[in-house]
Amino acid sequence: MSDRWYYRTADTEVGPVTFSGLRRMALEGLIGRETPVREGREGQWTAAGDVQNLFAPKRERVIGPPILE
Description:
By secondary structure, the protein is an alpha+beta fold. The protein is built from one helix and four strands, in the order E-E-H-E-E.
């Protein structure tokens, strides 16, 4: 995996940033799952949510039986 990533915000291309920097921005909510990102200068733009290990895994919501008192 490249350490040179780019992302788009408000029609502006930003980068390069490291993958760890991009991941930190994702975890802090500075970029969202729909933010366009690409790996390297010639990479294909894709949604940030499609990049493996960029966001913390989604937690499944488990609904158990009602609690009876």
